[in-house]
Amino acid sequence: MNFSFQPTAAVDGKVLPGIKVAATIAAVSLLPILLLSLLGRHYAGALHGRIPFELTNFDATAAMLWSVLPGSSHGDSWLPMMHALDILHGPDRNSLYEKLFFGAHVRFQYPPTALLPLHLLSAIGLLSVRILNAINSLTFLCNAAAVGFLAWRLFRPSPAGQPFPARSAMAILAGAAAFLFYPLVRAHLLGQIQLWIDFLFTMTVVCWLLEKRLAAGLMIGLACTIKPQMGALLLWALLWRENKFAAGILAGL
C-alpha cells in the first residue's frame, strides 16, 4: 500500500506551489492556538487562582522547555508505579491492587507488565522520578521527529517535480506541531507514561507506512503492556488477515 500526497493545492483554479501550501497549513493550524493563547493570557489573572496549571498551549510549551534541563520532579504516573513496584518486591506481591487501591488509596491503573522498565532501572540503580522524566523528554523528542518523518514521507514530490522545500517545510511543521499539542505537552509536564504509548503508536504508523507489518505489530504489543485496551487491534488484524501485524502484537505482549 503506497501513501503519498502531492505538495500542491488548487485555489480558484490556480495551483499553488508546495511551499505556499505548507505556509497556508501552518497559518490555519497555528492561528486558533495563537488566538486562544492571547485570550488565556488576558484572563490569566482571574483564573490562575482557580486553575493550578498552564492555561494555554504556548504557556504549557514554555513550561515544558524550561523543565527539560533541570529535570521535572512531577510524577503523576511514576510515583504510583514506583509504589506498586515496592509492593511487588515485598511479601504482599500477590495482593498488589488491594494494597494500592484499598490500603494506600493510590491510583494505579496499569497492568503489572508496565512496571518492567522501572524494574530494570531499579536493578541498575537508576530509578528516580527525574530520570524517568528525562526519558520522557527523549521520548517526546523522538515522537516529534517521527511525526516529522511521517510528513516528509507522505508529502512526496510529484512526478513532474515539486520544490523540495515544500516537503521539508511540511516535515518541520509536523514535528513542531508536537510541541504545541496540549495533551502531549501536558503529559510531559505531569510526568506521565502516556508519552511512551504515544511514541509507540507513532512508530506503529511509521512501520506500517514502510510496509514493516511485523515491526508495526510489535510496537502495538509493547504498548499493550502499558495499555491493554490497544489489544483490540489484534482482533482487527485477525479479521483483516494481517497475519504479520497480528504476530508482531503477540510477540510484544
Feature tags:
mainly alpha, 253 residues, 13 helices, single chain, globular
Write a structural description:
The protein is mostly helical and 253 residues long. 65% of the residues lie in helices and 2% in strands. The chain is built from 13 helices and 2 strands; from the N terminus they run E-E-H-H-H-H-H-H-H-H-H-H-H-H-H. It has helices at residues 18-42, 44-47, 57-68, 78-88, 96-104, 116-123, 129-154, 164-177, 182-190, 194-209, 213-224, 232-239, 243-252; strands at residues 9-11, 14-16. It has a two-stranded antiparallel ribbon with strand order 1-2. Strand 1 and strand 2 (14-16) form a beta hairpin. Helix 7 packs antiparallel against helix 8 (164-177) and helix 11 packs parallel to helix 13. It is globular and about 65 Å long. Mean pLDDT is 84; it is low at 7-15.
The share of residues in extended strands comes to under 5%
How many strands appear in the DSSP assignment?
2
| Main beta-sheet annotation | 2 strands, antiparallel
Shape: globular
Assign a percent range to the helix content: 55-70%
Distance between the termini: 26 Å
Write down the Rg.
22 Å
In order across it, which strands form the biggest sheet? 1-2
- Structural class of the helix and strand makeup? mainly alpha
**Which residue ranges are poorly predicted, with pLDDT under 50 across at least 5 consecutive positions?**
7-15
List SSEs in N-to-C order. EEHHHHHHHHHHHHH
- Average predicted local confidence, pLDDT: 84
Count of helix runs:
13
